[in-house]
Amino acid sequence: MENPKNINIEVAYAKPDEQMIVPLTMPPATTVEQAINESQILIFFPEINLQQNKVGIFSKPCKLDTQLRDKDRVEIYRPLIADPKEARRKKANAKKL
Fold it and tell me: What is the rounded distance in angstroms from the CA atom of residue 93 to the CA atom of residue 84?
């Protein structure tokens, strides 16, 4: 039987061609890192390194020891391929030509 005090959360990771969202029911005071480990998403995406990949809750960056609340979605972010500022600068320069 499910404990009514448990929280329902999701752990999400996406690549350009693939995404995974894992729903979980966890005890209160679960941390981001605990949820990621419990989701087993690291098995499916071995390229994730929690010491390097940034994480967040609903697009807001957070730390691995952040405690989750009911209905939170933990997101694991991939490293940026290009610097967004540099990409905008190149695009603006190309328009000037």
Answer: 14
